[in-house]
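Record filed below.
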Amino acid sequence: EVVIRPANSRFYGFALYNLVTANRPLMDVRLGGPAPGKRYESISGGVGHMIQRNLRVSGEFTYDVEQELTRATVGIIAAF
């Protein structure tokens, strides 16, 4: 995972690469997706904005290399 945040900026960007191989079938993390195999590979990237120190908004785009599926998510992260 790589996280980049310019100096004195509330915006940040991130990129993530996942590769999992197993001897047994993997658990389905796709919520209703096709039956998983023994390998999971994905590439993700996104941007976010820190509203306050403990509150941020984030958007992410993920591409599943093995099943050629895409997913986009938007969320609010809060810590109190």
The chain is about 0% helix and 60% strand. The two ends are 25 Å apart (CA to CA).
